[in-house]
Design brief:
By secondary structure, this protein is mainly α. It contains 6 helices and no strands. Helix 2 runs antiparallel to helix 3 and helix 5 runs antiparallel to helix 6. The longest helix has 27 residues. It is elongated. The model has no long low-confidence stretch (mean pLDDT 85).
């Protein structure tokens, strides 16, 4: 007779934490973007650049400011709505995984699998790099970050699919 106690799954806990953190970041970002909708974005950007003691008149910051002038409140509201919805999606999925609800494993597999073709496309697509527009890079090349995210998504899909029966037993 099997115990009713769920089996330990440390990798699952890492996935849960990742989903919950991503969900919270998306929710906070969505609410923040929504609050920015009524602001004059170019002026706000200029104030932020001056606050961190940088020159807002440089080509890089002027290009960003010019792009911000094309943003409308409706665009900002749309972006905020999508960020909030995706944040809720991630949070619900993370909570479902934490409680080992069987549908949550398929939600997480589907979400991770959805992005794999997009990440592969981004890896094979040629990118033009303007060094002045990207003066500070966390990695040597943006494709390194895409490759890391791709590997993480593939590992999540494989782990959850392989272990779904072991750690997600349907409740009878």
């Amino acid at each position: 007779m099997e115990s009713a106690q769920p089996k330990k799954a440390p990798t699952l806990y890492l996935i849960v934490i990742g989903k919950l953190v991503e969900g919270m970041v998306l929710l906070v970002t969505g609410v923040s973007v929504y609050l920015l909708a009524k602001q004059n974005l170019p002026d706000l950007f200029d104030q932020c650049i001056r606050w961190i003691h940088m020159d807002p008149e440089g080509r890089f910051f002027n290009a960003i400011s010019d792009q911000l002038e094309t943003v409308t409140p409706r665009n900002v509201h749309s972006l905020a709505s999508w960020l909030i919805l995706y944040g809720l999606f991630k949070t619900v999925g993370g909570v479902g995984l934490a409680f080992r609800v069987p549908w949550a494993v398929w939600l997480a597999i589907g979400e991770s699998f959805f992005f794999i073709p997009i990440e592969i496309f981004e890896l094979v697509r040629p990118h033009s790099m303007d060094s002045e527009m990207h003066p500070h890079r966390m990695l040597n090349h943006p494709k390194e970050a895409i490759f890391i995210v791709l590997i993480i998504n593939v590992l999540i899909v494989l782990y959850l699919y392989k272990n779904r029966q072991r750690i997600f037993r349907p409740h009878h």
